[in-house]
What does this fold into?
Amino acid sequence: MEKEIIFENENGSWQTLSTQKWERRKLYQPVSDKEIKASIPGKVVQVFSAAQAGQEVKKGTPLLELEAMKMVNTIASPIDGKIKEVCVKAGEDVGKNELLISFE
Amino acid sequence: MNNEQLEEFRKKIMLGGGEAAIEKQHASGKLTARERIDALLDKGSFEELDQFAVHQEHNFGMEGKELPGDGVVTGTGTINGRPVGIFAQDFTVMGGSLGLTHARKITKMMDLAVKLGMPIIGINDSGGARIQAGVDSQAGYGEIFMRNALYSGVVPQLSIILGPCAGGAAYSPALTDLVFVVEGISKMFVTGPNVIKTVLGEEISQEDLGGAKTLAGISGNAHFYAADEQACFEQIRQLLSFLPQNNQDQPAASAPKEPNKLAKAIGSIIPNDSKRPYDVRDIIRAISDDSEFCEVHEVWAKNIVVGFGRIDGRSVGFVANQPLYLAGVLDCDASNKASRFVMLCDTYNIPIVTLEDMPGCLPGSEQEHAGVIRNGAKMLYAYSVATVPKITVILRKAYGGGYVAMNSKHLGADLVYSWPNAEIAVMGPEAAAKIIFKKDIAEAADQKAMLAEKVKEYAETVANPLVAAGKGYVDAIIAPEQTREVLKRALKLCASKHEDRPKKKHGLPPA
It folds into this structure.
């Protein structure tokens, strides 16, 4: 994956190898509490009725169940807010950091 | 110099950078170096060293400049009546910048503390290297680092970050045993937001980059997080009560206390459905004296819980899988957290109680690429080499490599207990049944029913504590309600434990 690059300035030129880290760098994204992402890869076993676009929910309201590593985790709303989109359905497999639910 | 003149001079030095600078320090929500020492140590116990030390810089306008104490206050005192060595950088004196005298005051105190066998506490609040000091400043940092490393495992070393601690300065706390941060005050990074913006074009605030929440919750650089300085000092007083003064000493015993009556009944904490999570800290609180639990790394790698408590008046270190987060899997961060804690306990003669509910290691390319092999290996290494009493209670799941890693008999556990509903197996029943009975399931008319039947068969024959107990891998199967009594007896029994290891210079733990 490395590629040769040549630097040049008034003092001369140098040849070096680039690991392409720069090209592949990911810039910092502030963490948003308006998004629920999967903290672990797993399967959505149940989407509760409160989890619907347009629904106003209170902090702590159970929204869905995610099963991973022999454990069923209830995912609750992190905030008081209005749901913008529910991105998953029961039975779906999700990857780590996949967006599950977004808030307005 | 007569007494009056001396007192006058002393008064001036005690004011550090002067009243205006002290006001500025207070305005930014921070105590001064001397106020911090007074707040942390037992009242009136502080004995200062090198109060009259002078700086050694001559160039760039430094000649003749007065820097009281050279920007650091050092000395000895007591916490809970037990002696400690302490330094506090004084931000009011030239931003607490580090010159040669500043560094040598710190190293002198460290040398004394180690000779006398007492913990070392550092309060960091410094703009970093004193540029005017040139290479002397780098020399100073290096001399501190070397002592941090050489004294590691000899006396407990604690670092409190109460202000900026940037660049090379950040490496001294990283070499110490435990790091404490305070909301809104601590800032620790190697390169600050300005450099990051210039080099990477990345915008990030100081707080997001290396504030208290980031240090304690994301990077794991800090072990303890507090809302304000007073709360932080309370944490330190509590923590030191669990540690011995040095590695030749035993932790101080205190009067045994029963768990708090408000603690949950130990048998009711784990849900009947083994796929449901619970907070393993409830189990710790149902076991420990007075239900006290001094949690280390509380907000980082929350899928494993580590910290100190007491059983029958004696300090113990708890290591417990936390089903409440990430199902309690062992991943890179959790392995780093737990293995370091096991080493800390072993170094300071604190028995380790492991509470196991371990579904296995987290699958995925992210973990594999992050080095889950070499990181997970740290757990195996730390438990294997530890010679303090090592006791395990299998609460529920004990699957795969995680079972081996969580202080199994095979790594040298002294005593292993299991609760009756434990599931001890090489993998989960469903995954195992799909492999073992692949043919039967494929050929069945009703594949789903056949799978369910085989899963049940596997769970009944294998995923229980009787198989492991039958082979001697589990010493006894105990009811949850017996756990505290059993641990009390086990710890008493193990108090005389002595184990020698083959002589060597040092091992090579996975990195």
